[in-house]
Structure formats: C-alpha cells, structure tokens
Amino acid sequence: MKRPIKNHVSWIGKIDWELRKFHGDEYSTHRGSTYNSYLIEEEKVAVIDTVWAPFAKEYVARLEQQIDLKKIDFVIANHAEIDHSGALPELMSRIPDTPIYCTANGIKSLKGHYHKDWNFHPVKTGERLSLGGKELIFIEAPMLHWPDSMFSYLTGDNILFSNDAFGQHYASELMFNDLVDQAELMEECIKYYANILTPFSELVMKKVQEVLAFNLPVDIICTSHGVIWRDKPVRIVQQYLKWADSYQEDQITLVYDTMWNGTRVMAENIAQGIKQADPRVNLKLYNLAKSDRNDVMTEIFKSRAILVGSPTINRGVLTSIAALLEEMKGLKFRNKKAAAFGCYGWSGESVKIIRGQLEAARFQVIDDGLRCLWNPDLKSIESCVEYGGKLAGLLK
Ligand code: FEO
C-alpha cells in the first residue's frame, strides 16, 4: 500500500515484523525492521531504493497496483546492499530499459550482486536530476554505510533520502518519528549507530558537516530503515554528531563469561568495589554467553570504561569473549578505558590475552588486570573488591 509522506512523495516499502537477525546472524533485531522504498510522482516519476529480496515479488506486485510500472522514469539506488536492492531484479525485469542512478561504486556493487548490465547512470555529489519542477540532488556518502552509499535530496519538498544513515531496525505501522514510542526509538537508534556506524564516526562527522554546509532546508529525512523523521529532523542529525564524537556516558560495563562461576564472582565483587568508591557511576554487568551481543555492544558504546573477564580455557579465552574482542577491533571505539580479569586453574593466560586484544581494539588498558587462582575464596573476593575500588579512580 502506498502511504503518503508529502505532496507527491509516498512510502512504498515493506515492514518486516518477523525479522530477528540481520546481516546474516550478526545483528539482532528484536523489534523487526523496515525496508523503506519511496515513490515520487512529479512530472517525472522516480522510485528510490527497493526492498530485501524475499519481498521482491510482493513489492513489485503492490507497486503495480499503485502505478503503471512503465510510467517509472528513473530508479534511484542510494545503496546497493541487498536489503535495498533486493527487488531490483524483479522490478527491472518489468522495466529493463529504465535508467538506474547510483554512484560509480553502486554500479560495481549492483553488477557484482546481480550480474546484469542495466541502464546505469553514475552520479557524483552535486549532480541534479530534473523531475519536472522539482529536482533530485545527489550527495555521495561513502561508508554510510558502504563505499557505494549516497543520499538524494528532493528540492521543493525539502526531503533528504538518507538511506542507512539515521535509520533504525524498528518495525512500526506508525511510520513517523513523532508517533512512535520515543524510548523504543532511541534505543534502536543508538544500537544501530553503535553496532553499524561506529567505525565510520569520522566520516559521519565530515558528511554531516558537508550536508549542513550546502544550506539545503531539510523538512523530512526519509531513511531506508525504521521511522521517517518529520518532526524536528535536525535532532537526529545533532544526535549523530554527538555519537560520532567519541561518545560516552558515566557508565562502566563489566562483560564476562564463566564456566564454574569463578569469573562471575570476580565480576560481581569488582563491581561492588567500584560502586563503593564511585556510587554515582552507572554500573552494568553482562554474562555475554547469556546476553545479546549487539545489546552488550551498545552498552559498551555508552560506557567510559569496560572490564572484560574470562577464565582460561585451552590457554585461551571462552568463545563468547573471543568473538566480542574480535568484533570490537572492527568497531574502533574511541576514548574508552579498559581492564581485564579472570579465573584460572593451570596456565592462566586469559587476562593477558584479553589485555592484548583490548589494546588492539584501541582501548586504553589501565593495568595488568586481575587473575584469581581456582574458585575465589574469601581472600580473593576481598582482593576483587579492593581492585574495584582502585579501578574506580583509574577509570575516570
Ligand atoms: Fe540497510 Fe547497508 O544496508
């Protein structure tokens, strides 16, 4: 169903209520997602992005009920990733000669995915496409989220089609930012930024400044996932600038895994020591094996410091912690302190390994960490509390 946004601009996407994992199994989507596609029916007709491949037939069939497909003059592919381009083969099979506007990298990517030689028109920042009275202006946005990404801006209606930027994995029939639950919305926005956009924070900063420098009025931001920002869209832009600027709150997060509870007991007692010395800090503990990794990553993004704990197993660390450390290297968090802890029975390498991985992930590791031989006894528990007290000062 076509849903009106403004004047001759409509939403023609798909709400995916069932989605629980995205990017393969890499990103949890507790609240589903949407693949937003837009139809602009000015003198010329343009479709902006499509939907994920499983919904391709449904998407084209629904679109056909709204408009004679032959009336589509332009297809705009702001981003070639499959969640937005997945219905292109189905759509283009019906209108094979229709030009597709995208970046040069977009052409490479679309050809790589679909092996089709469609009627591609590469565009660069500042190029314009006339729709009659109104124009689309293209703005390349590499790494937001892939090297091929771009934004499109519709003059007259002052709509920025930002694709992945400013999006969230959030299914809602309410569709607009002013109508949905604000706490849920911001939870999904920060999770999306923390897990997807953090590595590109410098580019986010530059791109936002660049778009602001164009001095284009932006009344609405139409993202490719989640809500459309029509109420004070500048707020999410300002929020992105904050998140991109080495964001942190007064929070310390302890993330651990444990086999026989020794490392859990360490975590809880270190936390107690921190709390006694710094009662105001927001302290959170996660057994990673029992938690959602993306949600924990969001908590790490919000933290000024983290403690990572694992017992030693086979001269290494438990697999949940190994995966976390690997992912953190790619996410490139900035301006965060860290320390390591863990129990051991024999060789005891885990703390040293965690420390090294935290350094590789650009955390400022503040000391050698704390190890505990066997299951913590009363003396060890006291040393954990003491260690927490010491950390509370060092982690400021
Ligand atoms: Fe929503 Fe980078 O795709």
CATH architecture of the largest domain: 4-Layer Sandwich
**CATH topology assignment of the largest domain:** Metallo-beta-lactamase, Chain A
How far apart the termini lie comes to 52 Å
The total count of helices amounts to 12
Strand order of the largest sheet: 1-2-7-8-9-10-11
Q: What is the CA-based Rg, rounded?
A: 24 Å
How confident is the prediction overall: mean pLDDT? Answer: 97
Low-confidence stretches: none
Number of strands: 22
CATH class category label of the largest domain: Alpha Beta
Sum up the overall morphology in one term: elongated
- The protein's oligomeric status is single chain
Helix fraction by DSSP (H/I, runs of at least 4): 25-40%
Bound molecules: MU-OXO-diiron
